[in-house]
Amino acid sequence: MGVAPRHIAIDGPVASGKSTVARLLAARLHCLFLDTGALYRAVAYIALARGVSPDDPAAVALLVDSLDLRIQPDIRSALGYQLLADGAPLDVELFSTQVSRAVSPIAAMPYVRERLIGVQREFARGEDVVMAGRDIGTVVLPDARFKFYLTASLDARVDRRLAELRAGGSSMSREALRAEIERRDLRDSSRAASPLAKARDAVEFDTSGIPVEEVVARLEHAVTSVR
Ligand code: DC
To answer: What is the pTM of this model?
Structure first.
């Protein structure tokens, strides 16, 4: 019998640091990495590009059914993997303000979730992987060997996302960003289809004020100290 693959689930709210931490942890552990939010963002981006309303579940379902979404591991690329939608590579465009606005209603659609959860499980099948998202420990990989739930205060999360936005040249105000993050938190945790939630067996970690390298080191220690 082969050894079960090492699946590591990292969930948490907007800007809790989960994607950065997951990516660095995957590099340290020589595992695959996937930020599952990018898949929901890819559907939102394609919907906007093709004039499909992000509030129309039937139209978005048709779009998802016709879309060929592929993930190719590539730790040197901008995302840490290559995401291809109908053969076209997507990366920084997924993180625009328009896509961030359109993605919440799309991520709440049960049919979209069902399809994208299938893509995520297929990616993880038989592989050692660190996966970041909202429902990895609860729904996507409920048998994951390690589950972490990262949190941070709202202020810390606003600070982090603001620094990222400023680095990208955005002039969005702190107040507008704070309101946006609160709105997305509420939407992600109150939706009916696999809402943001801490798995019962997940280890919770408040990352407020802790440098990212230290968070990664602690998670790496937690993973490597268990045989
Ligand atoms: O992590 P993010 O901000 O890139 O996620 C984009 C959106 O997708 C956000 O509204 C939450 C949603 N999402 C989700 O519902 N389930 C996941 N596993 C990952 C993201």
So the answer is: 0.93
